[in-house]
Amino acid sequence: MSRVLDKLAAVFGTEVVATHSDFGDDTALVRRDRIVEILVFLRDDPDLLFDFAMDLTGVDHYGEEPRFEVVYHLYSLEKKHRVRIKVRLPEDDPAVDSAVTVWPTLNWYEREAYDMYGIIFRGHPRLTRILMYEGFDGHPLRKDYPKEKRQPTIGPEE
Amino acid sequence: MMEPFDSDAGGAKLDLQSEPMILNIGPSHPATHTTLRFRTVLDGETILDLEPEFGYLHRGFEKESEAATWTQVIPYTDRLNYCSAMMNNVGYAMAVEKLCGIEVPERCQYIRVIISELSRIIDHMVCVGTNMVDIGALTNFWYFWKCREEVYKVLEELCGQRLTTTYTRIGGVMADVPEGWTDRVLAVCRGVIPEGIADVDRLLTRNRIFIERTMGVGGITPKEAIALGFTGPCLRATGVPLDLRKDHPYMVYDRFDFDVPVGEAGDTCDRYMVRMEEMRQSLRIIEQAVAGMPGGPVNVDDPRFILPPKEAVYENIEALMNHFKIIMEGIRVPAGEVYSATEAANGELGYYIVSKGGGGPWKIKVRPPCFPLFQGMPRLVKGHMIADLIAVLGSVNIIAGELDR
After folding, report:
1. How confident is the model at residue B17 (pLDDT cuts 50, 70, 90)?
2. Labelling B66: which of A152, B14, B22, B182 has CA 20 to 30 A away?
3. Burial degree of B9 (CB within 10 A; 0-12, 13-18, 19+)
4. Complex prediction ipTM
5. Is residue A103 within 8 angstroms of chain B, CB to CB?
6. DSSP secondary structure string for all residues of B124-137
7. Taking 70 as the threshold, does the pLDDT of residue B6 lie above it?
8. Domain boundaries in chain B?
9. Is the pLDDT of residue B352 over 90?
């Protein structure tokens, strides 16, 4: 196991559900309850220093339980390493704490994950749609949203 | 929806003795170039607040990809950053190859480096050229357009297309370079491009009007830029030398001698300077890549990924079946997940791919470099004048194709 994952597992113990380094990408699946704490640790720990939040996205593992996943990709400018942190969310309660306070850049990424998958980021300053329009019905990147589905064209807001 | 504007915020007195004005810029406006929109709150000409809006060019790239085979996704990637489509092709191919464990032949890697750097040059040319048009200097645009046209001619020879190239394949490229192609690349890189850069450099770099319009406009500190997720020229303009070609050399970038230019103030002027120098560095890389380009095949020798030669398809049943399976079902990619990042013209272009096995992706997420840049626009322009918004917007180079996907 890599140094990053070792350290994470040593500090957070049972919070870390699983780790792998397949294809050379260090990955940790963690519980959602203390996700903000884990991200702050990754950002601030002098051995890790993940100062960049490069990407955040949702994944719909349709047919599996828990169904949804939120994936964070972090990068450290100084240590030049990357890590992927994943959180699994059940279908009936797809919610996780927002990490906008940790990295302001995640603001729009979280809005996009909400827009596309309906994942709720608790404590987000303004969780609204970002790519689709207000009034769009459903979340287009969910696997049970048919690609061919068409929705009425809307005019400008009154 | 915008939060109600509080005119007493910070105790600042408004310049004009009236209500702040809300002005919509875009989504169809000459200076936003693509379908971007801003809601600005103005006090006279000073920007008090700004809200970027986008999504007008959203075409469901990720949703479409999930219904396509691995190879069918390549044309979609052209349309992400259409100013440097080749780099999107290369980034995507590298991500899938990482998942498959393919090491493409050296010749292919050299070709990919050359087309990436050519794309970087024309991307920067579009950025600088149109940015200058917006602030009133049309000539530079034509000087750069001439170079860009020559580069497009060279790229067209490779793949038959100018903008939507679709040149890479999983495990290689569409076809080897034509006879004498590298000589024509060198002719362009030694002739029209350096001339164009020198012309624009003479027109702008010491031009007082240019300096007054750009210096100190839209600056940002390294710390803020990192927190906002800036990468590429916009981050390097603040003085942070993050360049994946140097820090995590992919393909064969570790064999070339080139510098990573950085700025100081992170303002519009520094972004321009960084882009100009990066073009010169790209020329250096192309010179070295052409000189060191080995012979040999361009595709991996593996029938699981590469289509058999057309003659063989017509002549024997194995090749026919192989061809049929790859076209109809797609290449087989093992289950797993990868994140693969390349240094595109605007910054880190990342592909996060989830595969569950089978002929097509389960999920593809693109991390477009200009997504965080566009998010950071309010930070760059608040407190500046409305005309500065146009100058800053051009210099961060937002491409709606990759922003909206």
Report:
1. low
2. A152
3. exposed
4. 0.89
5. yes
6. HHHHHHHHHHHTT-
7. no
8. 7-53, 105-300+375-403
9. yes
Tell me the chain B residues in contact with residue A108 when contact means C-beta distances shorter than 8 Å: 371-372, 375
Give the HSE-up count for residue B346: Cα atoms under 13 Å, Cβ half-sphere. 31
For B60-84, write each residue's pLDDT tens digit.
888 888 888 898 899 999 888 888 8
C-beta separation of A34 from A12 below 8 A: yes
- The answer on pLDDT for B34 being more than 90 is no
B367 — contact with chain A (CB < 8 Å)? yes
Residues whose CB falls within 8 Å of the CB of residue B57, separated by 6 or more in sequence, listed in order: B34, B35, B400, B401, B403, B404
- For the four alpha carbons of B141, B196, B264 and A100, in that order, the dihedral sign comes to positive
DSSP characters for B147-204?
HHHHHHHHHHHHHS-SS----EETTEESSPPPTTHHHHHHHHHHTHHHHHHHHHHHHH
Non-local CB neighbours of B334 within 8 Å, separated by 6+ positions: B99, B100, B101, B355, B357
- Domain spanning A3-93: which superfamily? NADH:ubiquinone oxidoreductase Nqo5 subunit (3.30.460.80)
Instruction: Mutation target for B interface from A22, A52, A150: give the one with most B CBs within 10 A.
Output: A52
- CB A114 within 8 Å of CB A127: yes
Count CB neighbours of B350 within 10 A.
24
pLDDT band at B3 (very low <50, low <70, confident <90, very high): very low
Residue-range domain boundaries for chain A: 3-93
Comparing CB atoms, the residue among B66, B228, B404 nearest residue A131 is B404
d(CA B178, CA B291): 16
Label residue A49 exposed, middle or buried (CB < 10 Å: 0-12, 13-18, 19+).
middle
> Does residue A28 or residue A1 have the better pLDDT?
A28
| A150 interfaces chain B, CB cutoff of 8 Å | no
CATH 1.10.645.10 corresponds to the domain B105-300+375-403: yes
Whole-structure pTM value: 0.87
A54 and B CB contact within 8 Å: yes
